[in-house]
Design goal:
Number of domains of chain B: 2
CATH class of the largest domain in chain B: Mainly Beta
InterPro entries (chain B): DUF1980, DUF1980_C
CATH topology of the largest domain in chain B: OB fold (Dihydrolipoamide Acetyltransferase, E2P)
Radius of gyration of chain B: 23 Å
Organism (chain B): Actinoplanes xinjiangensis
Keywords (chain B): Membrane, Transmembrane, Transmembrane helix
Pfam families (chain B): DUF1980_C
Structural class of chain A: mainly alpha
Oligomer: heterodimer
Number of helices of chain B: 5
Protein name (chain B): Putative repeat protein (TIGR03943 family)
Shape of chain A: flat
Helix content of chain B: 25-40%
Order of helices and strands of chain A: HHHHHHHHHHHHHHHHH
Distance between the termini of chain B: 42 Å
């Protein structure tokens, strides 16, 4: 690692490049053009559908930004300032025991899913066993106190929804962690080599980590937000209503809807509450799937952990969440 | 994407967030309670941009190199920044309201409805009017003049409806509350116009065809156009 780092530094220093228009110049030209064309641009998006799309897109981004930024700062702190030995002491030595502890640790992090992806990436980088980091990744957005309070407020007539949601989410998170221990392969997770984290100056490494994660996870968040806005505008709610009558179909419909809508886990309970024609079981599945698998999370996981990981982890989590959610729902109601 | 370009994109994004949350534009997208967090996030982005530029300039050419796997996805962050700075799309309106079912489906039943506050007419939110009209069967509304503020959307029968969006978190989970307008006075205003309607409780209740939720009606006695409220969502 050290060797590779010094080599690449020498390479870059050795090549003296002639001036050519680079990213900054291109960006300046693009910005000037956009500002000049501001009015035609605004007319272009004034159609009601496109305007609603833009509003939803901007809303998802604005809502997610604080969580992303604070998640990124926390993950940079983990990556730079928290020594590796801390995690060895904080978590049980045996991975099988570390998974549920990491899952329960999600209770103390009030945040939504956008922040937990870079944090989980940082944890793995700092030597936490991937299974435990993944259990944390799934549990944190689903069972933190803010989310559970929101669920209680949204379902005043069904207090068992809160317990069912917490139990189902924790079971899925821990089960996925253990599944990873059995079947997961380290090479599926492709955390990009980050020479900047080994910087001799901790301050420089910290800001480099912040910059990298904001740009990287943020870029993928944009993709997810755009997809969610498209679904939000393109799929009229009336389509769903025809599916509500069938018990099996309604569970699948709301599970898929949770993936597509990509609503913040702090808000999804209110949406679930308004889907009143659907059974409580199917709405529980909606609440269990949403914080663990959705378009913006899949996009961010692809960005942070690599495509091979996301292609396996997201579908497996989806199946686990649907099965556990439906199972617990059937027992409770 | 080199570090200087990344710094500029982060600065744009941070600036866009700060601008939105210092000018009430953010209320079109998220709840008021998010403002301090937006301030923090915007400031942190600006600091991160400054620190990136500072280290990059100090490192000179050595640090100017491209990081190849440092994704091109980062460029996409220009989109939300420019959407806020240049377009600042409006709060959800009649189009979104027409696509979604009314939020009065869920019986968020309060065990007891407190009596209306004093005033004539009494200013009420659409949500308050709706829950009292449906789940209290209008008991606490009877005999009072009420004032509701919302925008006009088109009902399933083509007649104007008074509508307000509610949200739990951000506009992506925004849902309409629809109140039908009955009575002799017809409200003639184009869709998405904000109006202030004065009227009395009507026992008429219809179903929203989108999700079979209740749509209460208001017997309109008077109405006038008004400006959009500072908080477009209830």
């Amino acid at each position: 690692m050290e060797n590779a780092l010094s080599n690449s530094t020498i390479d870059v220093a050795a090549t003296t490049r002639p001036w050519r228009p680079g990213a900054v110049e291109g960006l300046a030209i693009l910005l000037l053009l956009l500002v000049a064309l501001r009015n035609p641009l605004a007319t272009l998006v004034s159609g009601p559908g496109l305007q609603t799309w833009t509003t939803v897109f901007v809303s998802v981004m604005v809502q997610a930004m604080p969580f992303l930024v604070f998640g990124v700062v926390l993950s940079a702190v983990i990556a730079v300032f928290v020594p590796r030995s801390f995690w060895a002491r904080a978590l049980p030595r045996h991975p099988v025991a570390a998974v549920p502890v990491a899952g329960l640790a999600g209770v103390v992090l009030p945040g939504c899913e956008c922040g937990s992806v870079p944090i989980a990436g940082s944890l793995i980088r700092r030597g936490v066993t991937p299974a435990a980091a993944l259990a944390f990744l799934l549990a944190a957005p689903a069972i933190n106190p803010i989310v559970l309070t929101a669920t209680a407020v949204a379902f005043p007539g069904d207090p068992e929804m809160v317990a069912a949601r917490a139990a189902a989410s924790l079971i899925v998170a821990v089960a996925m962690g253990w599944l990873w221990l059995r079947l997961g392969r380290t090479e599926w997770i492709r955390l990009p080599r980050r020479s900047d984290l080994d910087d001799t100056s901790q301050a420089r490494a910290f800001w480099a980590a912040c910059r990298h994660d904001v740009m990287h996870a943020g870029g993928f968040l944009v993709i997810g937000a755009a997809a969610a806005a498209t679904i939000n505008v393109a799929v009229p709610e009336s389509w769903l209503q025809t599916l509500a009558a069938d018990p099996l179909l309604s569970v699948l419909a709301l599970a898929v809807l949770a993936v597509l809508l990509s609503i913040c886990s702090e808000a999804d309970a209110f949406v679930a509450a308004s889907l009143s024609q659907f059974s409580l079981t199917s709405r529980l599945v909606f609440l269990v799937v949403g914080p663990m698998v959705d378009l913006k999370l899949i996009a961010m996981q692809t960005g942070v952990f690599g495509r091979r990981f996301a292609a396996r982890f997201a579908p497996a989590t989806f199946v686990a969440a649907v099965l556990v959610g439906a199972g617990i729902g059937t027992v409770v109601w | 994407m080199n570090r200087r370009a990344q710094a500029i994109v982060m600065a744009l994004l941070g600036g866009a967030i700060l601008k939105a949350c210092l000018t009430d534009v953010y209320l079109r997208y998220v709840k008021e309670g998010l403002q301090p967090f937006l301030l923090g996030a915007g400031t942190l982005l600006l600091v991160a941009a400054t620190m990136t530029l500072y280290y990059d300039l100090r490192a000179g050419d050595e640090g100017h190199g491209h990081d190849h796997h440092e994704s091109r996805a980062g460029w996409l962050l220009i989109l939300p920044a420019l959407a806020v700075l240049l377009i600042a799309p409006p709060a959800l309106g009649s189009y979104a309201a027409g696509q979604a079912g009314s939020a009065l489906a869920s019986a968020q039943v309060e065990s007891e409805f407190s009596p209306l506050p004093p005033g004539d007419p009494v200013p009420l939110s659409l949500m308050d009017y709706g829950t009292r009209a449906i789940f209290d069967e209008g008991r606490s509304l009877a005999g009072r003049r009420l004032r509701l503020i919302g925008f006009i959307s088109t009902g399933p029968d083509g007649r104007p409806m008074l509508t307000r969006m509610t949200m739990a978190c951000c506009a992506a989970d925004g849902r309409p509350i629809k109140v039908g307008l009955a009575g002799g006075v017809t409200v003639e205003a184009p869709v998405d116009t904000w109006v202030q309607v004065v009227g009395v409780w009507s026992s008429r209740v219809e179903k929203d065809p989108v999700n079979q939720a209740h749509v209460p009606y208001l017997e309109v006695t008077d109405w006038q156009q008004t400006t959009a409220p500072r908080r477009p969502y209830e």
